[in-house]
Amino acid sequence: MPVSGASTRAVSRRAARPFALRGVRGGPAGLLAGLALVLVAAALAAALIGAAGIPITRLPAVMGLATGDPDLVARDRLILGAVRLPRVALAAAVGALLGVSGAIMQGLFRNPLADPGLIGVSAGAALSTAAMIVIGERIVASSGTALPLGTLPAAAFVGGLVTTAVLYRLATCEGRTAVAVLLLAGIAVGALAMAGLGLLIFLADDRQLRDIQFWMLGSLGGATWDKALALAPVLAAVCAALPFFSRGLDVLALGEAEAFHMGIEVQRLKRWAVVSVAAAVGASVAFSGVVGFIGIVVPHLVRLAAGPGHRLVLPGSLLLGAALLLAADTVARIVAAPAELPIGIVTALVGAPFFLALLLRRRVAGL
Amino acid sequence: MIAALETRAATVIVGRKTILAPLSLQFAQGETVALVGPNGAGKSTLLRLLAGELAPSSGWVGLRGTALADYSPQRLAQHRAMLSQSVAVAFPFTVAEVVAMGAGAAGTSGIEHLVAEALAEVDLADFGSRIVTTLSGGEQQRAHFARVLVQSRCGEALYGPGVLLLDEPTASLDLKHQLALATIARKRAAAGTTVVAVLHDLNLACLFADRIVVLDRGRVAADGPPRAVMTEALLADVFGVCGALGCVPADRPFVLPHGAAALPCGGAATSPNQMSPNQ
Fold first, then answer.
1. Residue A165 class from Cβ within 10 Å (0-12 exposed, 13-18 middle, 19+ buried)?
2. Do B72 and A254 touch (CB under 8 A)?
3. Within an 8 Å CB–CB cutoff, is residue A257 touching chain B?
4. In which element (H, E) is residue A313 found?
5. How many whole angstroms separate alpha carbon A159 and alpha carbon A161?
6. ipTM score of complex
């Protein structure tokens, strides 16, 4: 059965929610509309800010709503269409997938501190990608051609799914998944993947090392429309699944036996939750490398505002995840301009202290 | 008449250990049954078996004549509600949110009224907006009882009176709320719901139930109305205590334990109707 009561029990100040929106005008729909506005603002900022800045006053001309200097308009359109907007789309999709997979995972594990990285999905995806870089290239190089495009994303995707499937088999016995075993097995598998990565780094040459570093720290630098579009089906599938998760994950908060008593097909719920998380995380690692902490920070913030009900937490995490990763990417692009920080560093700098603060609050609350 | 809930030679065997020997029990509609017995007798296992949470290792368990295994979890939840021994809520849900979870997937109209009514019944009328993990143990238990009541009522609206399974529902309740819970459960039974409760307190069991099933090491040691079941011999044999038995009111025995059975109890087995309370 689940992890000990003390660690799964939720943090809560006495009685009230800190920023509960209950009773506020607009209610749940208002909250989601607000988050959508935040997302639009973040997208706008990400599109306009950068090495070649586009003042917002030039936007009407770019959109063809006003007249402006034709040369300037052409330049702005080129920057937006070829560089900024694909990156905005990719960052939003990756952020949305990471945010929502964190929310699903925390519901599944009945623990607000769980993260997709925790069960080793990200590590597995990163390992298979690095293996493709180091070993795959040697095989291909001997035949005298370059590594085919799309190989690395496919490797990451397969790595994430295989890791999840192995973990699921390890932790499932007689049709029941022991969450504690799944978590601990995830730590072990993560360590194993890290050892594998270490071995690959030992074998890698200088250029391969830099490529592996990209996967370990994460970057949205290589964004193209093709990559963003490739994420669209995964995003659409996860969005379509959300309504089916929300009641199940709510009731699962009371325990697996209680969820069954209340009419949930617990095994099916858990299986689909694991598959969704694997697909979402694998796909996002494939196109942006390992970007940590979005999955922890985002659902927590949404829960502070909306309460723990998954009917709001899941779509809210989708929207806020997209907005937060857009903001983080904008910071990563401008803070060391003209160079770019790996986005994983930015999210870790914000996310790790946030995570520690969460732990500290739980300790203070005696939980 | 088809029993509301029935086991036919159902066993539960884990590894090589037999938790429940072949049990054949029938629970009629509207019956109030207390399952009692010493620790490890298999009471909770039997309740989980009746809930469909455990499948029998052999034998058959059915609800209204249909095997539990043939119900989908959702259909089953509309026919039986169960209150577990202790429930830890993982996220800071409010009491009202937890109680409303009992209503099921369909956004039942009038759910708010149903929740408010159940909360008032368990004496938590003003606790709806409190976060459930901040309540005391007894208050949380009452909140979960309210949730189970809501589930039972929503199922009843669809399929008529169902089954209510309670696993030590009074474990952390004060005396007043223990009696209040027993009264609510009896009211549900009077309206046709079959109520089966695991109880530790023999006196509460005698007061609450029309029928007591005594389990001992996975077997039924006694089964019948409280006055027939509660004997000094049973107390000594099954529970290992000496106790005096009396009756208040006339058809409801009570137990006053006064020592472990290793000590001389004095007197042979006597049924309570032959004894006075102060013997």
1. middle
2. no
3. yes
4. helix A310-334
5. 6
6. 0.90
